[in-house]
Design goal:
single chain; alpha/beta; Rossmann fold; eight-stranded mixed sheet
């Protein structure tokens, strides 16, 4: 009989900002909690490589959750009467609510893309709640470079349009199977969800005027960016890091905007040393 993967998936009821959510959570391993935040319009499946890596799970309790409206986390009651829009306030609130609900003791938080943006806000506003902060494809702001209205129209398949947008953000040498699985996750997104996430990424989540306040002595900050990403490019990451004293930057070769899912093995080669450094410091 083929053995199950070590990942356990469960649902957790969470109250946040006056609403009740049923959040889907996956985890594996034991030790220092590592809270993983997926990209816009996708879900925790992006972290399958990290969750299945015994070198990581030997020392870390890896936890990933689907944001409300994403993956297996349904929208809250009454969603049908509103337009979904992720904001810096709502995003920050749900992450902190999840950490509290899971009773995590100063977890390491790692986010990619929109997750890589929100971890910078966590570093500004709530650094003492975290042991260390890892930003993947992090930037303080991205100038809009396409019309996001195409992502939610009655005459267009939003999932396929989203897949088309993100397909060009991956490194061409990433394995074909992993690239197409990453794209498939986007094809499955709920109507208007990717567009709603980009409201945060391109409008509400502009934190250029605040990142200089980050104190890396409170929580070390590691910024890992794939060289083939033009959305949160190496230049964008370096521009942010230049304003943050003590930020550690690594430009990852042969990786793009979705390093943990488009090429898990190559990404883990960059992540493991960072996690080792965090553990040694702890």
């Amino acid at each position: 009989m083929t053995a199950f993967e070590p990942i356990v998936g469960r649902y957790l009821p969470v109250d946040c900002e006056g609403r009740r959510y049923r959040i889907y959570v996956e985890e594996a391993g034991q030790g220092i909690p590592l809270l993983c935040l997926h990209t816009a319009g996708s879900d925790t499946r992006q972290f399958r490589g990290v969750l299945n890596d015994s070198a990581v799970t030997k020392h870390y309790r890896v936890i990933a959750f689907d944001l409300p409206w994403h993956g297996k986390s349904s929208p809250p009651a009454g969603w049908q009467t509103e337009e979904y829009q992720l904001t810096i306030a709502s995003y920050t609130a749900i992450i902190r609510a999840m950490s509290k609900a899971l009773t995590l003791d100063r977890p390491v938080v790692m986010g990619c893309s929109i997750g890589g943006r929100i971890v910078l806000n966590l570093a500004v506003e709530h650094a003492r709640e975290f042991r260390a902060i890892i930003g993947l494809q992090s930037s303080a702001y991205v100038e809009p470079y396409y019309d996001i209205s195409w992502l939610h129209r009655p005459d267009v398949h939003g999932g396929e349009v989203a897949a088309g947008y993100v397909s060009g953000l991956m490194a061409p040498m990433s394995p074909e199977a992993e690239r197409w699985e990453t794209i498939w996750h986007y094809m499955q997104g709920g109507p208007g969800v990717f567009k709603g996430d980009l409201h945060f990424y391109k409008i509400d989540g502009d934190i250029r005027d605040r990142i200089g306040r980050i104190d890396t002595r409170v929580a070390p900050l590691y910024l890992l960016t794939g060289e083939y990403d033009y959305s949160a490019s190496p230049a964008h990451t370096q521009e942010a890091a230049d304003q943050i004293k003590g930020a550690k930057v690594v430009i990852m070769k042969e990786l793009g905007h979705f390093p943990m899912s488009e090429n898990p093995e190559r990404f883990l080669g960059y992540l493991r040393p960072v996690l080792d450094a965090i553990r040694e410091r702890a």
